[in-house]
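About this split. The held-out portion is used to measure sequence recovery: a designer receives only the structure tokens and must propose an amino acid at every position. Recovery is the fraction of positions where the proposal matches the reference. Here is one held-out target exactly as it appears in the evaluation file.
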């Protein structure tokens, strides 16, 4: 029995990593994984991605880019168990056991599914229009991810809290029926982590098409930063730092002193061109080395594959043992 807390989180492989992912998820997860009293399991949720990302080439490319990004940014795979969901055959097996323990009514209440139905109805469509069973059962697969490794702490964004609570419900029901095989997970939402705004000022998200990709070449990075929407104030006119996307991204990359200085310069009327130029320099400086490693990894995907294979091997030591116990518990076992 380990006394370390086990932290587990998944990254859906349905897009290219952007600055918002870095600041809001990758950076804090890597920092937390360096703590001595945590044991981290991070994985690429490619089965989850399949619910929405049904272009094979894109899914494959996204998996490669996201894995490369985490490795390039310094994830220590000796400490962290870093793997791909689809490399763990016990996860879909557990998904089925949990599916049979999950009330359909619980899934009816899931926000993601309910939202899709509401959108359909609002558009005058049938409620079920274009909703696949993957979307409906999504929280069960996520429960399997979590319970497979008996993780206690699940760092997630706000939109995922309900899913972790559902994993808890499902685990309780299973434990009640078959014995105490699962620990009950809790969601951990870090309020200090920045949710970055995108080019248009809304939350940076691939669904809004307003992202700044994480490892753009320098010229492209500069171009994207120049596209950040600002107001029309001229150089010399005081600017409000708190409502500015430029300042918000600055703050996510700068130290305290640099942040305080930039706030003063906004009040003094720094021009948008100048502020963006400095933002570019700050961000570029921090991404330069990881970007080199990232590009090297993309040139040599076998290294990524090896790292993931090693992670899966370590993960499966646990998943195969727990799956054996679970099958036994539900009565699926050898007859003689
Ligand atoms: N659903 C999560 C998201 O979209 C990703 C995910 C899949 C996950 N399985 C998980 C997160 C298990 C935490 C634990 O962000």
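Reference sequence for scoring:
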């Amino acid at each position: 029995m380990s006394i370390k807390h086990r932290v587990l989180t998944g990254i859906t492989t349905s897009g290219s990593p952007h600055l918002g992912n870095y600041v809001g998820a990758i950076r804090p997860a890597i920092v937390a994984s360096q703590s001595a009293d945590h044991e981290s399991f991070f994985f690429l949720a490619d089965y989850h991605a399949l619910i929405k990302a049904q272009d094979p080439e894109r899914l494959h490319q996204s998996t490669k880019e996201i894995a490369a990004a985490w490795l390039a940014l310094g994830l220590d795979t000796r400490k962290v168990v870093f793997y791909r969901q689809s490399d763990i055959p016990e996860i879909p097996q557990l998904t089925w056991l949990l599916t049979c323990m999950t009330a359909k009514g619980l899934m009816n209440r899931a926000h993601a599914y309910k939202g899709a139905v509401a959108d359909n109805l609002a558009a005058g469509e049938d409620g079920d229009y274009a909703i696949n069973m993957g979307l409906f059962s999504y929280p069960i697969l996520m429960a399997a991810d979590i319970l497979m490794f008996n993780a206690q702490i699940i760092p997630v964004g706000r939109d995922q809290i309900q899913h972790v609570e559902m994993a808890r419900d499902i685990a309780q029901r299973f434990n009640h029926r078959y014995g105490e095989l699962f620990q009950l997970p809790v969601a951990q939402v870090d309020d200090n982590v920045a949710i970055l705004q995108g080019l248009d000022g809304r939350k940076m998200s691939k669904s809004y098409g307003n992202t700044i990709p994480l490892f753009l070449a320098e010229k492209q990075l500069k171009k994207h930063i120049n596209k950040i929407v600002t107001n029309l104030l001229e150089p010399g006119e005081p600017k409000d730092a708190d409502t500015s996307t430029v300042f918000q991204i600055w703050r996510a990359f700068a130290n305290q002193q640099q942040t305080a200085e930039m706030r003063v310069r906004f009040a003094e009327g720094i021009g948008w061109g100048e502020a963006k130029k400095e933002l570019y320099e700050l961000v570029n400086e921090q991404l330069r080395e990881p970007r080199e490693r990232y590009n090297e990894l993309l040139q040599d995907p076998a290294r990524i594959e090896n790292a993931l294979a090693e992670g899966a091997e370590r993960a499966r030591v646990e998943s195969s043992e727990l799956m054996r116990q679970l099958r036994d518990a539900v009565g699926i076992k050898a007859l003689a």
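Annotator remark: Residues 8-10, 12, 45, 48, 142, 145-146, 154, 156, 160 surround tryptophan (CB under 6 Å).
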